[in-house]
Design brief:
- It is a single chain.
- By secondary structure, the chain is mostly helical.
- The chain has 19 helices and nine strands.
- Helix content is 56%, strand content 6%.
- Strands 2-6-7 form a three-stranded antiparallel sheet. The protein has a two-stranded antiparallel sheet with strand order 1-3.
- Helix 14 crosses helix 16.
- The radius of gyration is 24 Å and the shape is elongated.
C-alpha cells in the first residue's frame, strides 16, 4: 500500500494538515511549475514500521470514558468561575456588557485564526461583529466610517456570520447542510492561503490520506492520520446525533460536552481545511446553550498554550477512548480563559471610570474622543506622541499639540518622563 506524503519544509512550523502542507510547498515553487507539483511529490511505501493506531480506529470509538474522580474537581472549578463571571457582568451597565461581548467575540475569532497561522485585522473584525450585534456605539468614528463605506473585507464578514449563527442559534440542530455552509463562509472564495480547496463539502482525499505531519525532508513525522474520506458520511451522521442530544438527555455538563466535541470533531477532520476553527466554533456553540453571552475566549487561551494544545491532541488521538487526561487539561485551560476574562472586566470598569471622570472634567472634541478611545483599546501599540496624534487625526502638529495640552492641563493625560522630541503621553488612572 502506498501513501502520499506532503513534505513540510521546516521542522519549526506548526503541525499542519496534508492540504495545508501542500499549500506551503506550492508557495515555495514558482507558479510556472506549480502545475507539475503532483508529479514531483515523493510517494513513500506505508510499511509495517510506520503503522500506528489512532483513536478513531479503536473498537470503543467514539464511546469515550473518563474518570469522574479526576474530572469533577476541574469541572466544579469551571462552573464556579463561570458563575463569578456572569455575576460580575450582571453588575455592569448595558453598554459595558455590549463592549465585553463584542471584545470577547473579536478575541475568539481572531485568536482561533491565529492558532492556524492566519492574521485577521482586529479592528475590522470588531467593527463587523459590532454591526451584526447592533452595538456600533462601542466603535470609534473611523471604524464606523469604514463600515459605512463597505471597506470591511468579505471574508471577515462571512466568518462573523458563521460564528454568530452558531452562537445566536445554538439550540437549533446541527446538520450537514448547516456545517458545510459555515465552511463555505470561512472560505468564501474557495481558497486558503492562495490555493484552491474543496469548500462546503467533505474532503475527498484526492492526494492520499489526510495527515498532520512535520519535519524536514527525509525526517518527516506523522502526528495524526484522519479517518478515510469513504467513512466521513457515517462518521459525521453519528457525530450529529451525539451533538444534537440536549445536555439534559445526555447527562453531561455543557463545559464537559464542549471539550468532548472539540476532540471528537477534530479527530474526524471532515474538511480539507478549517477543521480546527470549526471544532472551536462547535465548542462555543455548546457553551452558548446556557443562555449567557459568550464572555470569555477559549481560543485566546489555546493560542497562549498552543504547544501544549497540540501535544495533548496528538497524545489523545493516539491513545485510548479513556480521555480523562484531555478533559482534565481542557477544563483547566477553560478555567484560565475565564480568569483572563474576569481581569478584562476589571479593565473595562477602569475604562468606564476614566470616561466618566474625563467627561466630568472637560468637554472633549471629536479628535480627543477618537484618540483616547484608541489609546484605551487593548490593541493600541507604541507611544502616544503629538506626531502620531496629528497623523491619525489628519490634523496639523499645532492642533495636535493644543489637543494634548488641553487634556494634560485637566489631568486626563500625563507626560511621560522622557522629554524633548521623544515626549510621549499616557492616560491617567482614576
Amino acid at each position: 500500500m502506498y501513501s502520499l506524503f506532503f513534505i513540510l519544509l521546516s521542522s519549526n512550523m506548526p503541525k499542519q494538515s496534508s492540504v495545508q502542507t501542500m499549500r506551503r510547498i506550492l508557495s515555495l515553487i514558482p507558479v510556472l511549475f506549480a502545475e507539475n507539483i503532483i508529479a514531483n511529490l515523493r510517494i513513500l511505501p506505508y510499511t509495517d514500521g510506520m503503522k500506528r493506531i489512532y483513536l478513531w480506529q479503536l473498537d470503543g470509538w467514539p464511546h469515550f470514558t473518563w474518570k469522574d474522580s479526576v474530572i469533577t474537581p476541574q469541572l466544579i472549578q469551571v462552573l464556579h468561575k463561570q458563575a463569578e463571571l456572569y455575576g460580575a457582568m450582571r453588575a455592569l451597565g448595558f453598554s459595558v456588557k455590549s463592549l465585553n461581548h463584542v471584545d470577547s467575540l473579536t478575541q475568539e475569532i481572531a485568536k482561533s485564526a491565529a492558532i492556524e497561522g492566519e492574521r485577521i485585522p482586529a479592528e475590522d473584525l470588531r467593527s463587523s461583529i459590532a454591526r451584526h450585534l447592533g452595538a456600533e456605539n462601542v466603535l470609534t468614528q473611523d471604524a464606523i466610517e469604514r463600515l459605512e463605506n463597505n471597506q470591511i473585507p468579505q471574508r471577515i464578514q462571512t466568518t462573523v456570520r458563521a460564528v454568530l449563527d452558531a452562537i445566536q442559534h445554538c439550540k437549533e440542530p446541527l446538520t450537514k447542510e448547516r456545517l458545510c455552509s459555515w465552511h463555505s463562509l470561512l472560505f468564501p472564495q474557495g481558497f486558503s492561503a492562495g490555493f484552491k480547496i474543496t469548500t462546503g463539502s467533505y474532503r475527498r482525499d484526492e492526494y492520499g490520506p489526510m495527515r498532520v505531519i512535520s519535519g524536514n525532508m527525509g525526517k518527516e513525522r506523522i502526528h495524526f492520520e484522519a479517518p478515510p474520506a469513504s467513512s466521513l458520511e457515517s462518521e459525521m451522521n453519528r457525530f450529529f446525533h451525539w451533538f444534537n442530544r440536549s445536555a439534559k438527555d445526555s447527562g453531561i455538563e455543557l463545559a464537559l460536552k464542549s471539550a468532548i466535541s472539540h476532540l471528537y470533531f477534530v479527530t474526524i477532520h471532515p474538511f480539507d481545511d478549517g477543521n480546527g476553527r470549526l471544532s472551536r466554533i462547535l465548542a462555543d456553540m455548546i457553551l452558548s446553550q446556557d443562555g449567557n453571552d459568550r464572555l470569555f475566549s477559549m481560543s485566546a487561551q489555546l493560542l497562549i498554550e498552543r504547544k501544549d494544545y497540540y501535544a495533548m491532541l496528538e497524545k489523545t488521538q493516539s491513545g485510548s477512548t479513556d480521555i480523562t487526561e484531555w478533559l482534565d487539561w481542557y477544563l483547566g485551560c477553560m478555567a484560565r480563559a475565564i480568569e483572563s476574562s474576569l481581569c478584562q472586566i476589571e479593565r473595562t470598569q477602569s475604562i468606564r471610570r476614566f470616561w466618566e471622570e474625563a467627561h466630568r472634567r472637560t468637554v472633549l472634541n471629536e479628535r480627543q474622543k477618537n484618540m483616547l478611545s484608541r489609546v484605551l483599546d487593548s490593541s493600541w501599540q507604541g507611544k502616544l506622541t503629538t506626531s502620531k496624534w496629528a497623523k491619525i487625526c489628519k490634523c496639523s502638529q499645532d492642533t495636535a499639540t493644543r489637543d494634548i495640552k488641553a487634556l494634560t492641563s485637566r489631568g486626563i493625560l500625563k507626560k511621560e518622563e522622557a522629554g524633548g522630541r521623544s515626549t510621549s503621553y499616557s492616560v491617567c488612572e482614576f
